[in-house]
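Input record, target 12 of the design panel.
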């Protein structure tokens, strides 16, 4: 599983500062802005959705969803009961496809929750794109085109809106932005820029240690705009739950703790027995927290 460390950010700066031409997309311009502190504002391009039910397991429906967006089609799978108590939008780690989460989606749906997992752009699944490449994204940012990082964040926002519209609850269905590894970074930024998310769940993830603060101009603004430690400052009063294994061989436990300390209250940190990514213990902890909020499964 690929991850992106802050040191890579720093090593790219010489290239970023010299970036010239960039790829243009068919997306509308000026759909985002970044202020001098690095805070990102997104006006995500509109998308429509086609959902095709695939299977039923008792009351749970498993569906394939295609979001038709001007920046390219985005694919997802979802599982949900008829009347979910809350929902989750999951962004997987780098190189992990949505199909790897079918059992997790069923587990959450059987407990009474809607669960939607995206094929992240460039992750090797059905959704087209390139693997995380901040140099390429900065080239787009510097000319006002859409960085793919921003589009991946928008995909989470689009999925959240889709669940809201599908179930039409009053008050709206509470939906959490959830992510693992690199996906946890997209999820943190999504929850920061979209106040309609009920909260944030990060698993085996971290921020970029505010690496962009050492620079000036566009490189500084861009690097801060993709840093979960910056964007997640807007989460309060919504909760953040961070899960990290002490034996994580990819993103060190200390990086997860550093990220947790940078988040606003309310927040909770959970150390679990494992390596990198979620496992049965993580799911039990998350579902336990949800049972405290929404009541036990019926």
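The sequence produced for target 12 reads:
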């Amino acid at each position: 599983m690929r991850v992106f460390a802050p040191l890579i950010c720093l090593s790219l700066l010489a290239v970023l500062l010299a970036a010239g031409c960039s790829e243009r997309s068919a997306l509308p311009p000026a759909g985002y802005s970044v202020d001098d502190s690095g805070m990102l504002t997104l006006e995500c391009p509109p998308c429509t959705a086609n959902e095709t039910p695939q299977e039923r397991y008792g009351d749970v429906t498993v569906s394939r969803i295609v979001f038709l967006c001007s920046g390219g089609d985005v694919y997802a799978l979802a599982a949900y009961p008829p009347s979910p108590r809350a929902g989750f939008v999951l962004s997987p780690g780098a190189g992990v496809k949505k199909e790897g989460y079918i059992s997790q989606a069923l587990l959450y749906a059987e407990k009474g929750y809607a669960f939607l997992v995206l094929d992240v752009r460039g992750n090797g699944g059905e959704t087209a794109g390139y693997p995380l490449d901040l140099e390429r994204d900065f080239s787009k940012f510097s000319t006002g085109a859409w960085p793919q990082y921003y589009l991946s964040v928008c995909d989470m926002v689009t999925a959240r809106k889709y669940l809201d519209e599908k179930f039409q609850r009053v008050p709206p269905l509470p939906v959490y932005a959830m992510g693992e590894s690199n996906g946890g970074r997209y999820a943190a930024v999504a929850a920061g820029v979209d106040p309609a998310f009920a909260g944030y769940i990060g698993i085996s993830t971290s921020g970029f240690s505010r690496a962009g603060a050492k620079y000036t101009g566009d490189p500084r603004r861009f690097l801060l705009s993709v840093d979960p430690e910056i964007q997640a400052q807007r989460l309060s009063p919504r909760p953040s739950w961070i899960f990290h294994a002490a034996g994580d061989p990819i993103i060190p436990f200390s990086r997860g703790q550093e990220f947790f300390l940078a988040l606003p209250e309310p927040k909770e940190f959970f150390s679990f027995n494992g390596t990198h990514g979620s496992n049965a213990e993580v799911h039990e902890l998350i579902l336990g927290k949800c049972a405290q909020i929404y009541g036990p499964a019926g």
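Residues 88 and 176 are 5 Å apart (CA to CA).
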